[in-house]
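Practice problem: predict the structure.
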Amino acid sequence: MYEVIMYDGGIYRSDELFELIEDVGGVVLVKSRSAQMLTVTMSIPAEDRPAVEALCKEIGGQVKAVPLAGTEIAVVGPTLGRHHMPHPICDIAEYLRRCGAITVVMGLARGRGKLTSQINLEEVSVIDEYDACVFMLGNFKSCVEAKADLIRQLDVPTVLVCGPKPDGMDDACSAIVYGIGRKAARMREPADRAKLEEVGRRVEDVLQDKKEALSEDPLFVHPAEIKMLLENYEPLDMCLRPAPLVMHLDGLRAKIPYSEYHEAIENMEVYGRRLGDVCSITPSKINDSSMLIRIKTRSQVAYEDSLRAAKAAPAASAVGPVAEKSVKKKKTPAKKKKTA
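Answer:
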């Protein structure tokens, strides 16, 4: 069984850490460097965790658990204006990053107003690309309840964060955290930090439900193995965008143009199969500069294999009679004798 932990420390002797991760059969999920500081999120075998922790402490770093590692979460507000995008939404995004998630802050194009707020199909498609969504609303109860339709259209697990406790919204989202509203101050007080921890726990709970659903029908290959395969691909290795490969619970996001590179990625091999046969590779709804790689489950791959075998069976059985007919020679009629 693999465990996900995070190393937070200096760049000094970090090459020894990467060598140890490789030796124990682990995977580096996310690596972030800022000046002389380094943050590494890794997945390692549980039995080798003491050895990795000992080396991290020896080189002057800290090790902590990251329950949200390997996920990408959207933190959504009604708009990107200062009225709807106050400090708490940024603090929530930063706290989820410290728990190991990759977060993206988004705003709706027409989210302003209790009676005029809208979410269009394109915005729903973009949000549904992520593993989960944290949707933050404001301080007025009637306004929060009136915007329930914005959340009901989303298919991903959604955690609603708002000021007052709303009524009749339990069916609109996966979890609700109230007591966090709009304010012009950072969430630094002990009560505020307790609320951030509550948001992190709720997100962890809804993702745990998604993980259990995936465990009933496991993926054909783990996303970390696809990540290891693609890390040496030159366009991704040369990509200057932050985190060119982002892991999801059921796949990855590759930040290279779909139109240029999807054929090359589809023809890569994993466990003797084409990547395009065991994954669904589609362009991102954000733009063409990235693509989504959704890994199929084992039952999906087995079902598609059975369909291909069924199609090949009639063709194989038809070869016999055709070949037999081709071997038989046509009988030529006997020539009649001419009579005088």
